[in-house]
Amino acid sequence: xxxxxxxxxxxxxxxxxxxxxxxxxxxxxxxxxxxxxxxxxxxxxxxxxxxxxxxxxxxxxxxxxxxxxxxxxxxxxxxxxxxxxxxxxxxxxxxxxxxxxxxxxxxxxxxxxxxxxxxxxxxxxxxxxxxxxxxxxxxxxxxxxxxxxxxxxxxxxxxxxxxxxxxxxxxxxxxxxxxxxxxxxxxxxxxxxxxxxxxxxxxxxxxxxxxxxxxxxxxxxxxxxxxxxxxxxxxxxxxxxxxxxxxxxxxxxxxxxxxxxxxxxxxxxxxxxxxxxxxxxxxxxxxxxxxxxxxxxxxxxxxxxxxxxxxxxxxxxxxxxxxxxxxxxxxxxxxxxxxxxxxxxxxxxxxxxxxxxxxxxxxxxxxxxxxxxxxxxxx
Length: 379
Prior knowledge:
This protein has 16 helices and five strands. The protein is an alpha/beta fold.
């Protein structure tokens, strides 16, 4: 086992980071991890942080105390920043910069791993820029964004860019089969419908409820027979996303709360030392704020799943050689393709993209999705 095991289909990135972790003298002080959803930006950054703190050679053994602590989120010299709301403000950035300037307490480096760095406001980004321009000698910044263009050019130019790709479907399926014990057929189907998103593929392969939520979304196109059915379909989409977000939030909350309780000295009987209630409440408040972002992201992912349906229909209508994403719906997709026109399918895809843009502008989700399902019905 090593810290790189979860980087499915990212062999060039693993080679790049392994080499960098071993070369302490020439190590860049700021790194930018980019790639589409599901590629493993945060996973790669966390693995790199573990390798940098690793006590063994070669770096990134995965079993020494430092590697274990980083991967579990309890290492004192690795600060993981997760924007809890829809943005990350300047006051938060200033506190982070001040904290990052301290010397390592026991590790080799003081590391800041900033998930979703593109959520920082313009003012917060300028604060971070100053810290990245002149970092302390033993501080390393690891920033994660979908695209290099999501950050200021001045920040990007000071970072070494690590570009992750969407993992090949076959690699994701192999990981599910070999590491998670999923049967081959289920692994292949989950990897394909998740379009290479390893986290989504694992949920679909191992959680029957997740498969049920996907089925509810993929049933929407055939349900759009009237205005009332379009409204009901909108409710189904929003509910499926909300249920998915709740599962994800609960998983994150449980992991973070457990790690914090242990770090604060929880007894074997589950009792906490005096003076720790404030820290636990602060974490609970951050988790509550993050839930809003998780719901927004889950709804966006649900809309992309719906878009994959019409993408497959358009593929069939145009006679393209691309493989279908939703192979389990092949018969239905062929019927839809035969009954419609490519231009109508394109309008439906445009409607989904427009809905995603409206949600980014904080339009009420239920209203935005109702407008979408009505457009899908008449498209």
